[in-house]
Write a structure and sequence with these properties.
The protein has 26 helices and twelve strands. It is of the alpha/beta class and 594 residues long.
Length: 594
């Protein structure tokens, strides 16, 4: 089987797969995937030059007009012209390349993949096709495949800064930071005036956790190219880490004005919304947060619902409303903070339906017995994230909204968060069960967790390395209870062998799947300690005592030193990203006081 055909099959198979979760909007790391653009002026100029050399007098004008249409953003017209050219000569590789670019710009990734594969088969020595296909694979999250394609491109054009830049970006996202630096270093030495390379080097250092070292490279990128939107966008991330909210906001807003591609503008708009929330500008932040549904946003979740969409001005009294869960498990719990207020506004004649991750339904159903809960279903099709609500009769729904959107109406300020101990109810019988078991253990019973299953890119920096827990686990008079779901055998063994601490594992519970029982266990404990993930959110929502390990720019804090979602939660925050020693020592001292 030809390599190009294998590439297409792999792309098609992976983009048509069912997803077990939803896309997670980009966090505040704001690491830019700066891998170029098939529709850039330089790329189109090269393509036009190749088209001009075609011998077919009937095909070349059509493709030149198609390239001109791409230049002005009319991708639909470009597609039509490319198809007309291919009807004349279906074996014209440049025609397939033009069609691939046009379909990608339209967001039709399935057709784009097929067209790129056809172009690559007909133009095996045309390096730009491999580069563009690699770039599309990178955009769709198929990073390992993108590395292979970028390496193939570099073999053909070893002196191309863009090729090295692309490969470095892909290696960075695979966490091969040294590999990315090794690729960039000689190219920067040979091309010190290319701002793109300095920016990408900075993103590698930020992803590695060395933001301070990245700043001079960002300044150099902007000195070389003051209107370089991606470098300004990256600098907004760095400034945010150092607590410079005004500088971060100014940079991202300027980048939004400068950037040319709409998909990059959508990403920047979403980043801006989180900066606003970090700064406590809550109402503005929620309004801007709607940018997570921009069609061009790579992480956008497309809800398949053919009903009118709720707006903050919608009259809800007596209406039938559907909410659809979004983002991660912890987010679905956290966003539910306003459900009691929404039920009050809907009134006794109203009806609320909520589609959630299925594992959460028993806990939610007990907490809100009048609400109709059902599981949502998630798919990834042709590079797009889709969500459906198979258990909901949409004909009976007046209005629908993504779960986070009504925060615009019900939580427009920090003061609008109620001072209630809990808004969810764990199973009383299971709480009693766990308390009877825990009573046999000595000392205070403290449940601990230390990571999330989603540990990629900038999110890695939001969780302390486990070796930093040594002092915390050495606190006297405490039995530490494992609440960490997923594969945690290595850390439990490390605690036993290196720290001399036995972390007790609760019997008969799957901490990842049995979330209703997990809620009861959390409430039965004396304390739950760990970073923000699904477990700590469930514990906080159920009113369990929680100590949350946080970072300075965690946007759910909404510009405060606490978690408004869970008033009983105590926050322990690092001074800056990666500075774990101080906060872990503070937690150890607080535990000793128990």
């Amino acid at each position: 089987m030809p390599a190009a055909t294998k590439t297409r099959q792999r792309l098609s198979n992976e983009t048509a797969s069912v997803s077990d979760g939803s896309p997670q909007p980009a966090g505040l790391g704001l690491i830019d995937a700066s891998v170029g653009d098939s529709a850039s002026e330089a790329a189109l100029a090269r393509l036009n030059q190749a088209i001009a050399e075609l011998k077919s007098l009937s095909v070349a004008p059509l493709l030149q007009d198609a390239v001109a249409a791409i230049r002005v953003g009319d991708s639909a017209r470009a597609s039509e012209l490319a198809v007309q050219a291919l009807q004349v000569d279906e074996r014209n590789g440049h025609g397939w390349h033009v069609l691939a670019i046009a379909r990608e710009q339209c967001g039709d990734f399935k057709s784009s993949i097929a067209a790129y594969e056809s172009a690559l088969a007909l133009l095996p020595d045309h390096a730009d096709v491999a580069n563009d296909l690699g770039r599309l694979a990178f955009r769709m999250g198929l990073t390992a495949l993108a590395v292979q394609l970028f390496k193939a491109y570099l073999e053909k054009r070893p002196d191309c800064p863009q090729g090295a830049n692309n490969l470095a970006c892909a290696l960075r996202d695979l966490h091969d930071y040294q590999g990315a630096i090794d690729v960039l270093t000689p190219v920067i030495q040979a091309n010190p005036d290319v701002a793109m390379l300095w920016n990408t080097l900075a993103t590698v250092l930020i992803a590695r956790g060395d933001t301070a070292s990245a700043m001079p490279f960002l300044e150099e990128a902007l000195r070389l190219e003051p209107e370089f939107a991606k470098a300004r966008y990256t600098r907004s991330s760095a400034r945010l880490e150092f607590g410079d909210l005004d500088g971060a906001l100014a940079d991202v807003e300027r980048a939004i004005e400068q950037v040319e591609l709409e998909n990059e503008r959508s990403m920047m708009r979403f980043a801006r919304s989180q900066i606003l929330l970090v700064g406590g500008r809550v109402a503005e932040g929620w309004d801007a947060y709607e940018s997570r549904f921009d069609d061009q946003f790579a992480s956008a979740l497309h809800m398949v619902v053919d009903r009118p969409r709720w707006t903050p001005e919608s009259d809800l009294d007596g209406r039938s409303m559907l909410l659809i869960g979004e983002q991660g498990l912890g987010d679905e719990v956290m966003f539910a903070n306003y459900l009691p207020d929404l039920l009050e506004v809907l009134g006794p004649k109203g009806q609320l339906s909520v589609a959630l991750e299925s594992r959460l339904i028993p806990l939610f159903q007990r907490s809100f017995p009048s609400v109709a809960f059902s599981p949502h279903a998630s798919f990834k099709l042709d590079g797009h994230h889709l969500r459906t609500t198979p258990g909901v009769d949409l004909a009976k729904i007046d209005l629908w909204a993504p779960l986070a959107s009504p925060l615009r109406r019900f939580r427009p300020t920090v003061a609008s968060f109620p001072d209630r101990g809990a808004f969810m109810t764990a199973d009383p019988a299971r709480i009693a069960h766990w308390r009877s078991i825990l009573a046999a253990l000595p000392g205070r019973k403290v449940g601990i967790l230390w990571k999330s299953l989603k540990l990629d890119g900038a999110r890695l920096r939001e969780f302390s390395p486990f070796e930093r827990w040594r002092g915390v686990l050495g606190a006297p008079g405490i039995t530490f209870v494992n609440l960490q779901y997923g594969d945690c055998e290595a850390e439990i063994e490390q605690a036993r062998e290196m720290f001399g601490v036995e972390i007790w594992r609760p019997p008969g519970i799957d901490l990842k799947m049995d979330l209703d029982d997990l809620a009861a266990l959390c409430v039965a404990l004396d304390l739950v300690l760990g970073p923000a993930n699904a477990t700590s959110n469930i514990a906080g929502a159920c009113g369990a005592p929680v100590w949350l390990i946080s970072t300075p720019v965690a946007w759910p804090r909404l510009g405060t030193d606490r978690y408004p979602w869970y008033p009983a939660t105590r926050v322990f925050s690092t001074k800056a990203f990666g500075q774990w020693n101080g906060v872990m020592e503070e937690i150890a001292a607080a535990l000793a006081e128990l």
